[in-house]
Fold:
Amino acid sequence: MPSRRHRNRVCSVLSCAGAASVGALLFFSGAQTIAPLRSRLGLGGGTWPQQQERLFPSPGLLLSPPPEFLISLPRQASEADLSFARRLLPIRRHSPPQLDEEHDQSTPQLKEDAVLLPDREVLVLSADPAVGNAICVFQGGASSPARALGRLPGPGRHAYLCPLPDSEPPPLLLSSSSSSAAPPATAPAPAADFRKLLNWNDSLVFDSALLQGGDLLLFAKGTNRRQGVINTATSNIQCIYNRGSDGMVASFPATTSAQQVIRCPPPPSPLNSGNLHVTVALNGQEPIPSLATYNPQNTGLSLTRERKLICACTMVRNVAKFLPEWVRYHAAVGVEKFFLYDNASEDDLADQVSGLNSAGIDISTVAWPWTKTQEAGLSHCAASNQPFCQWMAFIDVDEFIFSPNWNKVEKPSKSLLESVVSVDSEVGQIFLPCYDFGPSGQTAHPQEGVCQGYTCRLMRAERHKSLVHLDAVADSLVNSVHHFTLKPGFQKVWTTLARINHYKYQAWTEFKSKFKRRVSAFVADWTDPVNLQSHDRAPGLGVDPVEPVGWAESFCELKDKTMKELSEKWFGIGFGGRGAITEFNSNGDSAPSPSLP
Structure:
């Protein structure tokens, strides 16, 4: 008989909104056969009148009068109560799973879901990890590999990315469990077993984070305008918790709402156990489809973890080549913990992180596959890690905190960044000016690394990045990537003790990769003919990935070798090369890397 860990494999029954015709998709793990299995109770999809009819058959759920929250209780409900609940309760149509005698029916199971992303990709979320290689098989025989992205921080489910074959229409995804034998030819499932594939271009609650104080953050598209300029009033946003096992539901007004982040109070004690589905409803409208969950027993929060003085957080995609140099340098000058929000990298990021951890550097990787959500990811990082980090440097992997005064120091130490954050208690944010470096004559990635390979920059500073005291960050978590909004009573200051060396305009072979995809939430892709004068674009560069004439010598107004010389003195020539190894002891001191031949 198949083992239990293979039973709840893969994905829910889904369809793509607006598709005139659809195919079918199965998710296979290793050489296991996927047998159709109907989906469990979830959120979103279906029409609201249909959901109401299914959720409130006669006699309907029994509901208490709604004060600040709404919760189902065993009493006689009025029609007004039921009407209010119908507007708040977010349920997507699922059939009960087919269980065998060995399955513990009392254990709540997370459902599986899938989201249609841009670039014809399907993000599959599964409660169970795939065993071995996984593939997506489409009706008609087409298939594509399912690439594992890791476990999502909030829902706790495992994420897989499946490309859609060019010849296939948007697929249906069959809920499945594993058994032995080879993947069979798939047949269309009954129409009743299908529900809509969630679409990333629509409103969607896509992630969540449970905070130590009890609040729940929901990360949602479609609730607020860009950059937090126009936000839906919190009085018009209801945070809705639902327990599928018994239909209990609770609703509270949100406490903050800005950009893609909504802060919700915790549910009442009758619901404060097990896995709950969570979503929001705006202005009394239908609830937004949601992937979010709430489980206070599965937070991963540790009250005994030592609080670091300085951490660093960044969003990454295909930066494995650059990561060791960036991490080792900042660990040497005082960063004690690194958080990498991985935006579906396809390179050897995991191997690089493993090697750096083995070298004594503390790095955590967070799966963050969502497109154009950099601000939301940094908000998640700031809120989730506030108990464990005092200061957080929000910088990219091509940005290095540096001071020309450090050239007087014989070897790096944690005290270098400690001196930068040694400020008055009312200072909640320290701005560091950014100086943009150009290709510096390089036509390929320099063998010696970024710091030693790029030595020419623009004269004036462009923008800034920040060191942020996480206790000072406003509850709304509003940020522009460059800085956060602070709580009343805290102030921001510019520092003269350090700056950012931003290796922005690298050799064309590296820079052109930016045309493939940009992770920033509100910044247009290079190929979009909008905001052509934005500082996020390269001056004079159009919308085509064609190397401009003279690129290698562009953006060079001032020769600046101070970082090159410092890096060579501290770590040796070729420190940024892929083979360089730096060991770190418990005090953060580093040994020089071997030089390149």
